C-alpha cells in the first residue's frame, strides 16, 4: 500500500481487497482499487480512473454498512442493509443491491433517491474538478497521473465510456445471469448471440430483432476491442458473461472458439483473483436438451468454472400456457433432470434454473415445483434454483410464504432472483 497526501485529499494505491469473492456480514471490497479520501467520503476508483464506489463517515453517510456502487454500464447501485437479518437467506448476499431499474416484490425501498446519495454524487463532481486543479501541482508522478485520469472522467465522460462498451458488444445485457451475484456482478460482457428467440409473454427482457448467432469474426473483434477498453483494469476481472439471453443456442463450435480467443486475449487467468476464472451464460430448456454430452465433456476439460442458467418457469402446463411460454411441462421436467445429471457428473459445470412466483398462479404450479425439486435435486450443493417474483402479480407476503415453502423442502439451494443488467 502506498499513500500520498495532496493538499486536502489522500490517495491510496495498492489497497488490495478480497481475492476470493466470499460473502461477509460486514463491508468489504474486492480487487485492487485506488482510494481517495476527501471531505468525509471514501471514493474508490478502478485502475483506469473510473469511479467505482462511494461511502463515507457518519458526518456525510447515515449507515457505514452501506455503499454506492457504479457498474460498467454506468448504473448506480445502492448496497443497502434493509432486511439485513434475512437477506442472505433470500438472495445469497448480506447487502441488497438496489438499482432503481427493476422492481422486486420483496425489496421495495428506493435508497438511490435519498439526499445523501445525491449529495455524494455532487461531491464527486467537485472532486473531479479538484483533481484537475491539483494534478498540475503534484510533483510525484504516480498521484499526478492518477489525478489527471480522475479529472478526465467526470459523469459525462463515464457515460460516454459506458456507451463505448455497448457499442463494442453491439447492444446491452438487459439482465445478467443470477449466478453473477457470486462475483458481485463484476463480469466482462461478450455477445455471442442476439436475443433468445422465444418471445414469452411475461418476459421483461425482450430485445429488438430476431434471434441471431454472431459470426466468429465479429466475436473476435469484440474481444480485442474489450481488451483495449479495459486495459490495465483487466486484472480486476476473472469472469466473463456471454450474451444475450440464450448463448447456449450458439452451438458448440462458436462457444468453444469464443472461450479460446477470450482466454488468449483477455488473460482472465492472470487476474488478481485466485482460482480458475468463471464463465456465465443463459440457456433455454430446448437448447439444453439439444446439447450432446461431448460438449459438456469439452467444457469440463477447460480451466474455467461454467455457470449455465436455464429459464424453466414452471413444471405445470397450465402455468406455462398462462405465461405464454412455448414449452411443454415434459420439456421442463426433462431439461431439469438433464441439468442435475450434468451437475452430478461434471465438476466444472453448474447448471442453475429459474422458476416463477406470483399471485393468481395455479396452486398446482407450486406443488409440482416442490415435487420436481425433491425427486430430482442433486445432493452436491450445485444447481441453485432461483425464484423470480412476477411484476404486478406478486406481493411480498405471498412471495415470502411461497419462497419459504420451496426452500424448506428443496435439496437444492433456493434464492430469489434479483435482476441486474449491464
Describe the fold and architecture:
By secondary structure, this protein is α/β, with parallel strands linked by helices. The protein has two domains: 156 residues, no CATH class; 247 residues, Alpha-Beta Horseshoe (pyruvate-formate lyase- activating enzyme), CATH 3.80.30.20. It contains twelve helices and 17 strands. The strands form three sheets. The chain has an eight-stranded antiparallel sheet. It has a seven-stranded parallel sheet with strand order 9-12-13-14-15-16-17. A hairpin with a 5-residue loop joins β4 and β5. α11 packs parallel to α12. The model has no long low-confidence stretch (mean pLDDT 92).
Task: Summarize the helices and strands and which ones pair or pack.
Blueprint: E1 2-6, E2 9-13, E3 34-38, E4 41-45, E5 51-56, E6 67-70, E7 76-80, H1 84-91, E8 96-98, H2 115-135, H3 141-151, H4 155-169, E9 188-191, E10 193-194, E11 212-213, H5 216-230, E12 239-243, H6 252-266, E13 278-284, H7 285-290, H8 293-300, E14 305-313, H9 317-323, H10 329-345, E15 349-357, H11 363-376, E16 385-389, H12 396-409, E17 414-416
Parallel strand pairs: 9-12, 12-13, 13-14, 14-15, 15-16, 16-17
Antiparallel strand pairs: 1-2, 2-3, 3-4, 4-5, 5-6, 6-7, 7-8, 10-11
Helix pairs in contact: 2-3, 4-5, 5-6, 11-12
Low-confidence stretches: none
Give Rg in angstroms.
22 Å
Assigned CATH superfamily of the largest domain? tm_1862 like domain
Count of distinct structural domains: 2
H/I helix tally: 12
Amino acid at each position: 500500500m502506498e499513500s500520498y497526501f495532496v493538499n486536502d485529499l489522500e490517495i491510496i494505491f495498492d489497497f488490495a481487497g478480497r481475492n476470493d469473492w466470499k460473502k461477509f456480514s460486514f463491508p468489504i471490497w474486492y480487487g485492487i482499487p485506488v482510494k481517495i479520501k476527501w471531505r468525509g467520503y471514501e471514493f474508490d476508483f478502478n485502475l483506469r480512473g473510473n469511479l467505482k464506489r462511494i461511502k463515507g463517515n457518519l458526518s456525510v453517510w447515515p449507515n457505514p454498512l452501506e455503499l454506492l456502487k457504479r457498474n460498467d454500464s454506468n448504473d448506480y447501485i445502492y448496497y443497502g442493509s434493509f432486511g439485513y437479518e434475512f437477506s442472505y437467506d433470500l438472495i445469497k448476499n448480506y447487502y441488497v443491491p438496489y438499482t432503481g431499474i427493476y422492481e422486486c416484490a420483496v425489496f421495495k425501498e428506493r435508497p438511490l433517491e435519498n439526499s445523501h446519495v445525491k449529495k455524494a454524487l455532487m461531491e464527486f463532481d467537485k472532486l473531479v474538478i479538484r483533481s484537475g486543479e491539483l494534478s498540475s501541482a503534484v510533483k510525484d508522478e504516480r498521484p499526478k497521473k492518477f489525478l489527471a485520469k480522475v479529472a478526465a472522467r467526470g459523469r459525462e465522460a463515464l457515460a460516454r465510456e459506458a456507451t463505448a462498451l455497448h457499442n463494442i458488444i453491439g447492444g446491452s445485457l438487459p439482465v445478467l445471469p443470477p449466478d453473477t451475484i457470486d462475483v458481485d456482478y463484476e463480469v466482462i460482457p461478450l455477445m455471442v448471440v442476439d436475443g433468445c428467440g422465444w418471445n414469452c409473454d411475461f418476459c421483461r427482457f425482450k430485445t429488438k430483432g430476431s434471434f441471431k448467432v454472431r459470426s466468429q469474426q465479429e466475436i473476435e473483434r469484440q474481444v480485442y476491442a474489450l481488451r483495449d477498453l479495459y486495459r490495465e483494469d483487466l486484472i480486476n476481472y476473472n469472469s466473463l458473461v456471454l450474451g444475450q439471453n440464450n448463448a447456449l443456442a450458439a452451438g458448440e463450435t462458436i462457444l468453444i472458439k469464443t472461450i479460446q480467443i477470450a482466454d488468449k486475449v483477455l488473460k482472465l487467468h492472470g487476474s488478481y483473483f485466485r482460482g480458475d476464472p468463471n464463465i456465465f451464460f443463459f440457456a433455454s430448456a430446448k437448447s439444453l436438451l439439444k446439447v450432446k454430452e461431448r460438449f459438456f465433456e469439452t467444457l469440463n476439460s477447460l480451466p474455467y468454472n461454467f455457470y449455465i442458467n436455464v429459464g424453466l418457469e414452471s413444471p405445470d402446463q397450465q402455468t406455462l400456457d398462462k405465461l405464454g411460454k412455448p414449452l411443454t411441462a415434459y420439456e421442463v421436467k426433462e431439461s431439469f433432470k438433464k441439468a442435475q445429471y450434468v451437475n452430478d457428473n461434471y465438476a466444472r459445470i453448474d447448471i442453475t434454473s429459474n422458476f416463477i412466483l406470483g399471485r393468481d398462479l395455479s396452486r398446482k404450479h407450486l406443488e409440482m415445483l416442490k415435487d420436481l425439486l425433491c425427486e430430482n435435486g442433486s445432493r452436491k450443493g450445485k444447481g441453485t434454483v432461483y425464484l423470480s417474483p412476477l411484476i404486478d402479480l406478486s406481493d411480498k407476503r405471498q412471495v415470502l410464504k411461497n419462497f419459504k415453502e420451496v426452500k424448506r423442502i428443496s435439496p437444492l439451494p433456493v434464492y430469489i432472483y434479483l435482476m441486474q443488467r449491464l
